[in-house]
Amino acid sequence: MTALRELAKVVRSKNAGPYEITFDVMFTDEATFARVRDSGVLTPARLAALYRTSVDQVRVCTFFAPALAFKLTLVRPGAQGGAGERDTFGAQQHAPLLDLEVPA
Amino acid sequence: MSGEFTVLSPVGMLGYGYREADFDACVAEGVDAIVVDSGSTDPGPSMLGLGHTLVTEESYLRDLRPMVRAVHRHRIPLLIGSAGGAGTDEQVDGMVALLGRIAAEQGISLRVAAIHSQVPHGLVRDRLAQGRIEPNVRGELPTESDVDDTLAVVAQIGAEPFEQALAEPVDVVVAGRAYDPAPYAAFLVPRGVEPGIAWHLGKILECGGVCAEPKGGGALATARADSFDIRPMGPEQRCTPLSVAAHTLYENSRPDLLAGPGGVLDVSGCDYEQLDERTVRVRGSRFEPTERRLLKLEGARITGHRCVFIGGIHDPVLIGQLDDFLARVEAETAALHPELADGTATVRFHVYGRDAVMGDREPHPVPGHEVGVLGEAVAPTPELAKAICTSARVGVLHLNYPGQLATAGNLALPLTPLDNPIGPVCAFSLYHLVDAEGIEHAVVREEVGA
Predict the structure, then answer these.
(1) Mean pLDDT computed over every residue of chain B
(2) Chain A residues inside the 8 Å CB shell of B50
(3) DSSP secondary-structure letter at B342?
(4) 0.90 cut: is pTM over it?
(5) CB contact under 8 A, B251 and A82
(6) Sheet containing strand B78-81, strands side by side
(7) Between vectors from CA B272 to CA B267 and to CA B276, what angle results, nearest 5°?
C-alpha cells in the first residue's frame, strides 16, 4: 500500500463555481496513473464515504488520460461566502485524499 | 501579419502585484496584446452584493501603470475583464476613471472602450416568468423575491462585445463581468487562430503564471492557427506538460468539456509538448459552438448582518467536552435572544484545530492541544448581531462546566474590541443561465487623460 501523496504530483481542491468543489489529482507518468486508476480505489462510493457525503453529491469522478489526471467534483455543502462558510475558495478540502492507500 | 500573435497576462488578477522588470522584458521582446482578468466569484458574493472591489484603488493603480505605459509606447491594446471584482457598471466606470488618472499622470491620452454587463431586474423577472432561466447546478431556480432583493445583476459576457470593442482603434477595453477566456478569444479568433486554440489559451492564461512551476506572476502565449506555446513571465519559472495540463482542469467540474458562453471547449484530444526548458506547446483543443445563445447571470443579495468574536481554549478539561459546552452556550444565548429560537437570527461556532475547515465532511476529527473558537452571529440588524455575539462570547468565556478547575475564564481572547461587527452577509441569489436572445452589451467609447 502506498499513500496517494507519494504517487501524485498535484492533489488539490478549488471552487468550480459557487455550488461545487472540484478536486484534481495529477501524476507525472503513465505507469503511476494506470496503477492508481486500475487499483479501483478512487470510486464514487469510496470518495463519498471519505468525505462523509452521499453518492448523489458526487457529480464527477473520472480518470482523464490526456492529462494523467483524476477528477472529482462534489456538490458544496452550504452557500458559498454566506453565513456558516468554512472555506470560501474551497482550497483546503483536499487533505483527506493525501492519505488514501493505493494497493501496489 | 506574421500569423503568430503573442498575448501577455502579467498577473492572474489585476491588483495582486507582479514584477515590473519581468513584464518590461517580455513587452520589449514584442507582444501583440496585454490581457488581464480583474474579477471572480471565488471570494464569494459580497463584492457583487456590496459593490466592494477586490483590492484597493492604490493596488489597481500600481498594477495598471506599467501596462498603460506599454500600451502607449508599443501601440498594443490592453483588455481588462470583470473590472473591479464583480464587474458591475459602477466598477467598470471606476476602472475607466483610474485609467484616466494614470493617463493624466503620464501626460498621454487613451482611447478607452467600456463594456457594461449589468442587466436590468425587469428583464430577469420577465425571463423568469417566461421559463427562460435554467436551474443552477443544484437544480434550483430563483424566486421572484430573490430577484427583487438582488442588488446588482451582471451577465457573464462572451467574446462578441470584446470583438465589437476591438473593431475600431482602441487602447484599453474595460469590460464588466466577462467569462475569463473571452477577451483572449476575441483578440485571437479574428486573426485566424482556431477557436479551440484561442479559448484554451485564454482558459490557461487568465490565471497568469498559475500554470507554471513554481506558480505565480504572469505568463505569455504565442498563438498560431492550430497551436499555442505558453511560458511563464518569470525567468526562474517553467511550464511543463503536467503544469499546463493541470491548469486546464483547474476550477472546472469536468476535465474534458469546458462550457462557456457561445460554446464548449473540448480538451479531450489535447497534446502537451515540452518545446524548450520553459515552454509548452498545446495542440488539439476543439471548440463546439452551441446553437442557443445563453449567458450566465450573477446576482447577490444581503441575507443579514454579521458580528464575530474569536478566542483560544487550551484547557483540556473543557476541550474534552467542547460540543456539549457550546450547545449549552447556544441554549443560554437563545434564552436571552428569542430571535435565535424563532430563526430570524443565528449563532454558530467554528472550532479551529478540530473540523473547522471541513465540518461534517472531516474524516479525522481529532482535537489539538488547543483549539480556536470563532463565534459568528447573523441577524437582521447590525445591533442585534452584536448583542447576540456578545452574549455568545460571554457564554463561552464564563459558563461553568463539569470538572472545571480554571474558574477565571474559558477563553484566550486575542482581539479588542472583543466583538467585531464585520458588516452585511451576502448570498448568491442568481447564478443561472438565461436565454440571451435580445440581451446586448453596448460598447461606449471615450478618450481619457491629457
Answers:
(1) 96
(2) none
(3) T
(4) yes
(5) no
(6) B271-276, B279-283, B227-232, B219-224, B5-9, B33-37, B78-81, B172-175, B109-115, B443-449
(7) 155
> Closest Cα partner for B411 from B357, B378, B370, B356?
B370
Pairs of CB atoms within 8 A across A/B? 139
Amino acid A67 reads A
Give B2's pLDDT tier (boundaries 50, 70, 90). Answer: low
Average pLDDT value for residue range B58-67: 98
pLDDT at B1 over 70: no
Per-residue pLDDT reduced to its tens digit, A63-98:
999 889 999 999 998 889 888 999 999 999 999 999
- Check residue B360 and report its DSSP letter: G
Nearest partner of B202 among B353, B60, B388, B35, judged by Cα: B35
Alpha-carbon separation of residue B137 from A18, A74, B281, B431 (angstroms): 10, 11, 34, 9
Distance between A28 CA and the closest CA of chain B, angstroms: 7
Nearest to A69 among B255, B271, B363 (CB): B255
- Nearest-CA residue of chain B relative to A89? B42
ipTM of this complex prediction, to 2 decimal places? 0.88
pLDDT of amino acid B291: 87
**Edge-to-edge order in the sheet of strand B286-289:** B257-260, B263-266, B286-289
**64-83 in A: which are within 8 Å (CB) of B?**
64, 66-69, 71, 73, 75, 77, 79-83
Set of cell numbers at residue B113: 472602450
> Which residue in the block uniquely carries the three cell numbers 471565488?
B42
pLDDT surpasses 80 at B168: yes
Residues 320-339 of B with CB under 8 A from A: none
CB contact under 8 A, B45 and A51: no
Q: Show residues of chain B in contact with A80, CB under 8 Å.
A: 41, 44-45, 428
